[in-house]
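User: Second chain of the day. Same drill as before.
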Amino acid sequence: MQEGSFRCDANVSVRKPGAALGTRREIKNLNSFKFMQQAIDFEIRWQIEELEEGRAIQQATVLFDPDTGETRAMRTKEDAADYRYFPDPDLPPLVVAPEWVDQVRAQMPELPRAMAVRLVADYGLPEYDAATLTQSPELAAYFEAVAQASGQPKLASNWIMGEVARRLNAQEIGIAAAPVGAATLAALIGRIQDGTISNNAGKQVFDALWNGEGGEVDAVIEAKGLKQMQDAGALEQIIDEVLAANADNVAQFKAGKDKAFNALVGQAMKASKGKANPAQVNELLRRKLG
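Assistant: Same format as last time:
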């Protein structure tokens, strides 16, 4: 590998569940990881098709053709004698005690694939999210801490794979060096969920936390005045003013142009300086527009 060259062989055999070990075929002289995967995948499919058709697999040496994506036989080997195998007198039989295997297995950390399966089962994550979050034990632990503290596993996943990952990549640092801890991110997600701030405001808070402008979510929200409007009467007044000032958009909406409604929502959010709850704005506008 250090010389910029790569050569490897792969042995492939398949069997039906519970059956004896299958007959192997050896794929020779693979020169890239890509071709190795393609060759193994094809050979597995070919052997399965042969067995399902009732044909026996013959032990052989094969080559992989990258142009066709198929393997082809070079020569067959009837039995071990063709390989010139012989017992080495200096190597005694090696017996591995099952108890030792169980002990080692019990001490092993949770492997990525098993962890991804667990995240799907325990948190209801899509498989893509689970695979991404288990790229390192530290990232998986960060996710679980955020998910458990916030009670919102999917939102935790979205934030980690989005805002958090983007900054980690930009700064070329790992999750252990992230300036926003799991508990802080969970608190931020909680404030979005309970309607204290909007999702867009949440990103502003996250920026401030990441850049060290504050250590507590609520303190940053207060300092930046990002709380959503809780006064329904004040919001209704803003809506009335927006409708009065945008008669053309009102007329276009009533004529069936949905884009005009989005323009009214934008005007209402602008008038509230981004503090209005978008869902409430939509509801009030639709109610007043009939």
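The longest helix spans residues 33-52.

User: Great, on to the next one.
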